[in-house]
C-alpha cells in the first residue's frame, strides 16, 4: 500500500505449498500487475488494520517481502486458504443458527460481487477491466459481471425518455 499516492500496488501474490512453504509468485498475467486507487474509506480501514495488527515476535520475510497484514493464532502468515476457512466457518455458524441458509460464499465470490456492483453502478468497462486485472474485457463482462431481468428493467427505466 502506498499511503502517499493512495494506491494499492498489486505486483505479486503470496502462495504456500505443503512441501515448499510460503513463496512469492508474480501475478498470473501482466494485466494482473496494477495499481488500484484507494478510497478514503479503504485507506482508513488499512490504517486501522496496520495499527491493530499483532505481528509475530520476528517479522517474517518471504522472498524478500515483509510487512504482511494478518497472522493466525500460530503466528503464521494468513494466505488465501486461511480466508477460505474463515468464510466457511462464518457460513457454518450462521447456518447452524438461522433457518434461512446462507449459500456458499468464498473470497473469490467477493470479486464477482465487486465486479457486478461496479458494472451496475455504470463504471466504465475498460476501467473495471483494469481494476479487476483482466487481460480480456470479455472476462470482465461475461464471467465476472452478473445481471438479471430486474437489472435490465432498471437500466431501461433509467434511460427511457419521458
Automatic annotation (TrEMBL):
InterPro entries: DNA_brk_join_enz (IPR011010), Integrase-like_cat_sf (IPR013762), Integrase_catalytic (IPR002104), Tyrosine_recombinase_XerCD (IPR050090). PROSITE patterns: TYR_RECOMBINASE. It comes from the Bacteria. Residues 1-157 form the Tyr recombinase domain. This is Site-specific integrase. Belongs to the 'phage' integrase family. Pfam families: Phage_integrase. The lineage of its organism: Bacteria, Bacillati, Bacillota, Clostridia, Lachnospirales. Keywords: DNA recombination, DNA-binding.
